[in-house]
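### Sample
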Amino acid sequence: MSNNEHIYAVARIRAKEVNLLDSSVIEQLISSNSVESMNRILVDKGWGDGSEKLDNILSVESDKIWSLMREMFEDMSIFDTLRVEKDFHNLKAAIKSEYTKVNDSSIYLKNGSISVDEIIDAVKNKNFANLPEQIANYALEAYEIMFKTGDGQLCDMILDKGCLEYIIELSKESKNLLLTEYAQMKVVIADIKIAIRGAKTGKDRKFFDMALVSCDKIDINVLADMAVQGVENIYSYLETTDFKEAVDAIKTDFAVFECWCDNQIISAIRKEKYTPMTISPIIAYILARENEIKTVRILTVAKRNDLKQEEVKKRMRDMYV
């Protein structure tokens, strides 16, 4: 990408940033008395394509992010750190669909780094040679586990671990500090959740060795040792890490903990407004948009389940603007 193209792309993103949701709009959405009221507020902010269904609006907004990127970048591989999670989700869906012989196109996610059709074809033909090598290896292992044992949980664990390891690898290859921070946060969130859920269900050390993914933010060997000993030992270990402030959130609810972690990422990406000569402002915009879509999705579920406002606010993400 030439310097002029880069400057043009960042300028376009700057123009788009004025349309991002801010905290005042989120407050309006929280205070609205129905999903339909939320829908009207979002449509007034330019969301959607005329559809009256909020679920459709969220899908349209996600598509808008990646349509914009494709307009500006011929080589989309620079965004693979952010996109491969969808590929691994689609692999899970395709393998289980092939195993059960139940087809449902709605379970697949768009805008991954690999087309949905390519993933489905690879699984149907048990031929993963055309997929990136790192994905193909995990896909084959998960496929064989599923068809030999019928163990969907183990299939998921293999692909979840493969996804996180690949995200870390891609972030390192990018040499971009923001992508690296994003990847590290994705992994540490997953590791902590695995450790706590495993501790609560009495998993052994072998399970943790299979499931946890190495990262820079915590020592997974210590985390595994503590998990075998019990949840309180996990909390004690986290108190010695950068996640000591998150312990109360973890004790409250994983959803509150995930909110805390997302807010750390938002805090990190705000700094990228001032680094226009790197790809970081564009990465920051993607993450900001995905953050607001996630926030609206959480609000939608809360409205449909009549969750109290106090509980809703605990789960609300900080906004980029």
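Residues 65 and 286 are 7 Å apart (CA to CA). This sample (ATP synthase, subunit C) is used throughout the tutorial notebook.
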